[in-house]
Amino acid sequence: GPGTGKTTLLKTLALSLALLHAPERLHLYFLSFTGAGLNDISDLPHAERVIQGTEAERVRRLFRRLMQTLNERQTNAEAFNGSTIVVFIDQYEQFRDAYYEQHMADFNRLVNEGRTAGIYMVITASSVAALPERTRSLILQRIVLQLGNAADMSAAVGQIERRAEGSLPRGRGYIPQAPPLLVQIALPSTI
Predict the structure, then answer these.
(1) Peptide bond between residue 179 and the one before it cis (omega within 30 degrees of 0)
(2) DSSP assignments along 34-83, one per residue
């Protein structure tokens, strides 16, 4: 839900990746439907300016570029050149609602085929039900922050200890595994 730390998680992941990889080897793209929370991440040399969800033309150009890159990398191994692309979408439900007709087929193809071409999608959503089962099944790694109800949390994470049930502090969540791993996401102080 809102205020659980999803945007902070995206910023933390982007900063961590940027610390580990040179700008010529890592390209970060951000599509935000949550306001200006990601804007300062554009200062990274790895990153393009954050695209707001209302910027339809910039969204169109991003997906055109991503699909062109995917096609090139699938047909020409030299096009890959070892660089990685990570696309962050903050608030999947709003992306889906705004761009279903224009970009959902491309989104699904990127989730399905992108990893083998060095293109990764990182998305946030407010509930388990927001993502279609087919899309959820393609996502290899999840971090689950506070969800709206216990049934959602159980469906997303699995069985958690009774003392761990209930409201989680902002930025705390689980990595679904057996047993679920409790994690705390750090808040970057400066970029």
Answers:
(1) yes
(2) SSSTTGGGGGSTTBPPPEETT-HHHHHHHHHHHHHHHHHHHH-HHHHTT-
As a whole number, mean pLDDT of residues 9-37 equals 93
Q: Three-state SS for 181?
A: strand
- Tell me the C-alpha to C-alpha distance, in Å, between residue 56 and each of 34, 68, 131: 15, 18, 22
pLDDT tens track for 60-84: 999 999 999 999 999 997 878 889 9
Per DSSP, 178 falls in state S
> How many CB atoms within 10 Å of residue 182?
14
DSSP-derived 3-state class of residue 175: strand
Q: What is the pTM of this model?
A: 0.86
Distance separating alpha carbons of residues 133 and 20, to the nearest angstrom: 32
* Bridge-based pairing state of the strands 119-123 and 84-90: parallel
CB–CB of 123/132 below 8 Å? no
Categorise residue 59: left if φ over 0, alpha if ψ from -120 to 50, beta otherwise.
alpha
Between CA 109 and CA 133 the distance in angstroms is 15
Could you tell me the two tokens for 133? 């089962």
